[in-house]
Fold:
Amino acid sequence: MNEYVLEVNDVVKRYLDFTLDKVSFKVPKGSIVGLIGENGAGKSTTINIALDLVRKEQGTVTVLGQEIPNEAHHWKEDVGVVFDGINFHEALTPLEIGKILSSGYKQWDDKVYQNYLAKFQLAQNKRIKDFSKGMKTKLCIAAALSHDPKLLILDEATSGLDPVMRDDMLDVFLDFVQDENHSILMSSHITTDLEKVADYIVLIHQGKIILSQSKDELIYNYGIIRCGAALFEALDKSEILAYRKCDFQWEVLVADKAKFKKQYRDAVIDNASIDDILLLYVKGEQAK
Ligand SMILES: Nc1ncnc2c1ncn2[C@@H]1O[C@H](COP(=O)(O)OP(=O)(O)OP(=O)(O)O)[C@@H](O)[C@H]1O
Structure:
């Protein structure tokens, strides 16, 4: 088996006023990859192309070792998908959905489904139309996890959940990938969630991937220098990733904060959160 469960290579998609521009990234087996980017950056388009829901113009997508699209649709059995919103008919109950899905998925495990319904406190016989938004999301996640997918793809799926439920859900995701045979690609605007669970972060900005990095590398090595104009002018620009001017100070993103700390002893260099990194790339200037 391939060491990557999803490989997106040089994918291009053009809409009237938007281009997904040679997007490439990989989801290693056993990992959680967080896809981040501003509204309209191209996250859903990328995910939809990876799921063969939107046609790409160039590039290749390989899911679980199979290049898609292809004639065999078996790969869909092994991919669980949760969008922000529900795909099930609103008149159905969780019990009825379980019955429908059990005939659609060879690997459907009703015991697993029942366990998730209980864990997420979802009534079996309540109609979906009477569910809250968060309950609908939980139902979609329960259903997606109950056909034993090897790859779970979540497009902004957890944003409707309250902080306690989101935290519980992150534990569910961590459990899911623990055996190294399961992997997750999740897009989210809640970057603190990704800080908790993601192994890798892929940042897409205006249709281009501008960062694809291990989360630990970002958290431990990336830094933000906050300085005045004189120090900013003196900084080695070849080592700067992005920068912006805020009022009277400059914020500068660097990949190796320890090196800068040694070189510029008087500079204030803070750790960079994923939000900081996103903000600097999106609102600032990219240096290289
Ligand atoms: N079917 C379509 N026809 C035309 N333009 C589209 C279509 N689908 C998406 N787009 C455009 O592609 C761009 C990227 O949209 P996409 O939904 O991929 O962004 P996103 O990163 O998921 O944003 P958000 O965080 O707001 O969900 C947007 O400019 C959007 O208007």
In short: The chain has a mean pLDDT of 92. The chain has ten helices and 15 strands. The pocket of adenosine-5'-triphosphate is lined by residues 15-16, 18, 37, 39-45, 156 (CB under 6 Å). The first strand starts at residue 4 and ends at 15.
